[in-house]
Amino acid sequence: MNDIFRFKIAIQTIKNYKKTTIILSLLFMVIAAGYGGMFPAFEESILDMMGSDFYESFNFFAHADQMHTYVGFLTLELYNIFWLLIMAIVFGFIAASSISAEIEGKTIDLLMSNPVSRKQIVVEKFVGLIPMFLIVNFATMLAVVGITAGINESIDYGYLLLVHCLSIIYFFAVLSLGIMISVIMDEKMKSSIILIAILIGMFVLNSLSLTASDFEWIGYFSFLHYFDTYNVLQFGEIDFVGVFVLIGVTIICLIASMFYFEYRDINVS
User: Fold this and answer.
1) How far is it, in rounded angstroms, from Cα 21 to Cα 14?
2) HEC-encoded secondary structure of 48-80
């Protein structure tokens, strides 16, 4: 019974991604500082473009009409692309290969030799990925704080913290989706490619939903629809419906993963 609560698999997962965590933290800190630092150089040129058909040309990006402001610039350049898409792809890729890599590498039998159930393995794999994301998440936030102060721009740091706290819920949904795909597929590359395709598809669907009112319903099939970083960063507004949807997705994906993995046949020969 004690082995169930020691989370040995989760701890080992954390150790396995220790270097990856450091690299990703530094990478996204540099990206955040780079994009934030570019704003003063682009501010005037953006203002000039806003007088033309700029918004009509970029209406597939939420709040593109606010790109001339620091919050709008961060939202479009950093959070909507590198955060909600690129970072989601990175962590989704890792999650989607977490269990399928064990199956493909024939090490799943060693994993199942632990005195825990298959359901516990799924939970621990998910838990083991959380610290990596949390470190990268808040390290990036600190980079945004530093560069904002460095270029003398104003931002509500409480709202910034809120964005990164709500990001946890968004990425829980991404990680749980990756875990679910990982228990279904036997090859880590296939499961990762499927996850990446789904995330890119969600990004496209959300973008299409912004182009015309007739396509607005398409956005409901995208995680991005339920997390508006601009409204949080600018006004501190929380989409509680979106929060509950993402939490629901996380729970459903994890429960589905546990039950599927519990009863599926695994060839370890």
Assistant:
1) 9
2) HHHCCCHHHHCCCCCCHHHCCCHHHHHHHHHHH
Q: How far apart are CA 9 and CA 112, in angstroms?
A: 10
Q: What is the pLDDT of residues 175-214, one digit of tens each?
A: 999 999 999 988 889 999 999 999 999 999 988 888 877 7
Residue 193, both tokens: 């490619």
Segments in 185-226 forming alpha helices (H): 188-211
pLDDT value at residue 164: 96
Q: How far is CA 204 from CA 60, 173, 180, in A?
A: 9, 18, 22
What's the pLDDT score for residue 140?
96
Q: Which residues contact 70 (CB under 8 A, 6 or more apart)?
A: 39, 148, 153, 154, 155
Q: What residues does each domain of the chain span?
A: 8-263
- What are the pLDDT digits (tens) for 81-109? 888 999 999 999 999 999 888 888 777 77
pLDDT band, very low/low/confident/very high, at 45 (cuts 50, 70, 90): low
Q: Is 86 exposed, middle or buried (0-12, 13-18, 19+ CB in 10 A)?
A: middle
In degrees, to the nearest 5, what angle opens at C-alpha 165 toward C-alphas 61 and 191?
Answer: 65
Residue 28 pLDDT > 80, yes or no? yes
Q: Measure the CA–CA gap between 151 and 107, rounded to whole angstroms.
A: 50
Q: Which residues contact 61 (CB under 8 A, 6 or more apart)?
A: 76, 80, 207, 210
Count of C-beta atoms within a 10 Å radius of residue 150 = 11
